[in-house]
Amino acid sequence: ADMRSRAEVDATLQTAKLNPEELLPTVHCLSFGPQAGGGECCLLQLEPGLCAELEAGHSLVIRGEKDEHAVLCSKDKTYDMKIADTSNMLLFVPGCKTPEELNTDPVSCNIIHSQIAGFSHNYWELRRCRPKLKKLRKLLLEDPYDGPDSQKDETSTFSKYTTEDLLSVIQASEEEILHQLQVIDACKIEGYWRILDFDYEMKLLNHVTQLIDSESWPLSKVPLCACLEELGSLEPREMIEHILVSYGRKYVDAGEVFFEMREDKICRAIGQMLLQNAVKFNLSEFEEVWQQSVPEGMTTRLDQLQGLALVDKSSRPETIFLLKVEDLPEDNQERFNSLFGIREKWTEVDITPYIQDLCAEKQTVGALLTKYARSSMLNGVKVYNSRRPVS
Q: Is the separation of the CB atoms in 314 and 283 below 8 Å?
């Protein structure tokens, strides 16, 4: 390309009826370089926080398997990636000087010849999203751990997962995955993350609560060492400790490790065990059996079963049945479809535990209901039903 002179530039400005006084004195003359296809460039729009992470040398990872929508993860957050089209062509000009830079550098030559290295009509836009963690539990439940004597473990054909494996298949950041492993009480066995088989977990919990009972320890002060001593012959010591960590709060007193047992969690687990054996349970009978089944000194309350069981007040007598929030779909619309399939009209109190986890940052359950349900009054109580016909 021929290099323009200042005279040519001024002539062009005059033709365009532009007043040179109103413009910066420096002129960029652009020409397309030989590789200006731009096909190999992707633009990514980053919020300042993410930008700072990259500048600090941290990496961002794109995660997802072939059939999944890609997400981008930092160390502790997950973002949806969407392509945003622009009507303006975006040009990549290496060493391009901005007006601010030109102003601070008044001696710069009047004409800068720049080559365009590439261009793009779109860029990737990031939107903070909920980590997609449902799959984590699903993968670990393919092969739950049911104790050291299990023959099943020898013959199992299912994959086992290390932290690295999970990072490659779960669409969430490392911190979100590690936090979720804690939430679902996963434990590391021989380097692999496992979830305990529910019956095996209950067997372990039962050993611990019976020991507490026979030793008359206060529920707020269960000694780790004594538990390991007494129960170590029945089950692996690390399993005993795992149950104490799952169902208690660890603290140290005078150099010794104790656990304060978590009443709500223990009552919930025992409630689940009882409900698993029946399709529906007469509510008042269930409440009686449940209270008798929990350790001495613990009190059962229905709100301990939030997101685990649902009471049917419309049946006579009232019944209760198992409905676990973790078995429901992760997608908002599918979640509501499935809930309205189970029950046509919901009160806000009943539906909240089943949609609470769908709330994005600063979003309320009320906002979700407004979007996916319509409300009406039934006997003076506000209820919600589907916005679309339920198939």
A: no
